[in-house]
Every structure is written in C-alpha cells, then in structure tokens.
Design brief:
α6 packs parallel to α7. This protein starts with 9 loop residues before the first strand and ends with a helix. It has a single domain (about 10-210), classed as Aldolase class I (TIM Barrel), CATH 3.20.20. By secondary structure, the protein is an alpha/beta fold. The strands form two sheets. The chain has an eight-stranded parallel barrel, surrounded by five helices. The radius of gyration is 16 Å and the shape is globular. It contains seven helices and ten strands.
Amino acid sequence: MAEVLGLRHFIKVCAVTTVSDAELVADAGADALGVILADSPRRVSLEVAGTISATVSDRLVRVGVFRRVAYDDVARALDVVEFDALQIHGGLDEGVASLARERGLALIEALSVDELDAASGVGDAYLIDGPRPGSGVAHDWDAVASRRWNRPVIVAGGLRADTVADVLAKVGAWGCDVASGSESSPGAKDREKVESFVRNALQYFESREEHHG
C-alpha cells in the first residue's frame, strides 16, 4: 500500500481542542491529530488551531478538518494555521485540491460509509466515516472491506480502543481515526482512552508489519 506523508501507518486522534490535549495525543504516540474548522461542537477558532499546531509542529502530522468549504475559507485558514494535511468532508472542490497541492499538503478525502461511490480519487487517502461523523456510532464495515481501493484507507466512526484492531484487520486499512472514542465529553480528551486507543492500534500495525514484512 502506498505511503502518505512518509508513514507506514496512520493513527489519528481528531477533534483536539486544547494545547494540553494536543500534548497528550503526542505523548501517547499517535501519528497525527485533527483540529475541526467545520460546524461542530468540537470546532475551534483559527487562533486556537494555530496555537495547537505550533505546539506539536515537530511531533505530529497536523490535519485541518473542513466540511463543504469554499476555497477562500481554506486559504484564509492556511494563512493563520500551519497544517500538514487537509481532511475534506462533503465533497472535494477542485480549487481546494489545487490549493493543497500548491501548499505541499496531503489531502484526505472524507466519505460517509453511505456515499462510497462518490469517491473522486483526487486525494492522497480516503477517510471512511459513519453516516453521522462525530456521533460516535459504529457502522457496518462490510461494504468498505469488500471494495477495492485505489488509495490508502483510514477507518473512522465509532471506533474505540477495544474495537480498533478488529476493524483495521477487517478492512486492511492504512490508518484509523478516533474522536468521541477518545473523549470524556465532546471536545475533552480522556487520557486513558487516548492512550489505550493508540496502544492497541499501534500493536495491531506492528504485528501486521511483522507478519507481512
């Protein structure tokens, strides 16, 4: 499977809202964090996003999460916040894709499990989420597992520490993403949940790499 951002695997903790939680995610050994700049209870301001990004600039892949966003909005965000990747929900605009390329950013195309046929193939990876992103509700992975993908796949939607390895194995995914499964309340991370999620995902990836070389 092709590597993205130079990573053999991708463990992302999303919806980070504070510097202390960003440091927790980094200390836990995750590969990436996400900050949400779309309508969400977990949305942060550009100023907060910028501070979080600067805090972990040398430790994590920093992903900006947007939904149905216009070119100008992304450009404005990138003038304030330094990201390594953009995660776009609700359709990938050609202008936004071009902007990501111009800035040297990786591009993650996020799809609901109900809209797999809408994949454009423009991005570097697909993130497959549940019907209601951020809800914490798990979904049926059969449709994703049975499909042939032309890009690395990141699984998301209702994942928890005790389920992440099984889902990764079923789909054969390159990465995983957790938000509500790492929280004590919306936007607030729980140390044990973060650490156990990252630990279990990492153990799975290390075992897979050991067996497949």
